[in-house]
Amino acid sequence: MIEVKNLSVQTSKGVVLLDHVEFTLTPGVCTGLTGASGSGKTTLLKALMGVSDGDVSINSGQILLDGEDLLKKPEKVRRDLCGTTLGFIPQNPMTAFNLHVPVGTQMSETFRKRLRLDKNAARKLSMDVLQKVNLLDTNRVYRSYPGQLSGGMLQRATMAILIGLSPRYIFADEPTSALDEENKAYLNQELTQMKQKAAILFVSHDDAAIRTLCDELLVMQSGIIVERGTTADLFATPHKEWTKEFVRLAMVEEGGGWTWKKSKSEM
């Protein structure tokens, strides 16, 4: 279990980015996180992964992993947790890869290092998980450099790595943003299967994906979680104005994804 308690984050100039954020991630449960652009969602993900920007600091709170505070752990310990314990799907998949090394080589090296597989086993696992995310031209994808693949293909490749590593906790940052409807369905299907053993924090504006995957939903505004509850309850009876508008547009578009821009009051 991951317990986030009283987490507050600010910049070096004292600007508050997260204000006393609290929630729990439990294996078997997918927790959705939504809110306006700039509301603090990415800041929260970076704090959880231990990769906050240089001018950002955590000034209070705890991030408890099975009762142990990650904020008190050395950087190397937190880095070693990435992969098999903490998994991440980035919004921009290009950032997950070295542009000068073939995708398959990077996948295999990750599996060799994190899972201690030999070269042949790591390559086989790479090919198997690429198939699982509907990258059926597997040999070509394996040999390709990141710049030779589309954003959607790279997003699926990052998902393939996650499937291979099978982490206990998954942080997903807008993972469906670069995908067409068919491949969104594949990704949602894989995350649904992974949810059986893992806890997922699913950051998204994609209302259809949220309703498909998320058991509960958090709504963030200006660094504060302003609304929370089961996904069904929040879609049925939202209370905050942002959530009401989110649900209204979801109903109008019959589940189509959308991106909420900052209002003047949030700039």
Question: Key features?
Answer:
267 residues, alpha/beta, Rossmann fold, six-stranded mixed beta sheet, four-stranded antiparallel beta sheet, 10 helices, disordered C terminus
Q: What's the SSE blueprint?
A:
Layout: E1 2-11, E2 16-25, E3 30-35, H1 41-49, E4 56-65, E5 68-69, H2 75-81, E6 86-89, H3 103-115, H4 119-132, H5 138-143, H6 151-165, E7 169-173, H7 181-194, E8 199-203, H8 207-213, E9 216-221, E10 224-230, H9 231-236, H10 241-252
Parallel strand pairs: 3-8, 3-9, 6-7, 7-8
Antiparallel strand pairs: 1-2, 1-4, 4-5, 9-10
Helix pairs in contact: 3-4, 3-6, 4-6, 6-7
Order of helices and strands: EEEHEEHEHHHHEHEHEEHH
- Describe the sheet with the most strands: 6 strands, mixed
CATH architecture assignment of the domain at 1-85 and 204-267: 3-Layer(aba) Sandwich
Instruction: Please compute the radius of gyration using only Cα atoms.
Output: 18 Å
Q: Kindly state the mean pLDDT as a whole number?
A: 89
| CATH superfamily label of the domain at 1-85 and 204-267 | P-loop containing nucleotide triphosphate hydrolases
The tally of beta strands, per DSSP, is 10
Strand content: 15-25%
N/C terminus separation: 35 Å
In DSSP terms (H or I, runs of 4 or more residues), the helix count works out at 10
Poorly predicted spans: 255-267
So what's the overall shape?
Answer: globular
CATH fold-level topology of the domain at 1-85 and 204-267: Rossmann fold
Q: Largest sheet, order of strands side by side?
A: 6-7-8-3-9-10
Query: What class do helices, strands and sheet pairing give?
Result: alpha/beta
As a percent range, the share of helical residues equals 25-40%
CATH class of the domain at 1-85 and 204-267: Alpha Beta
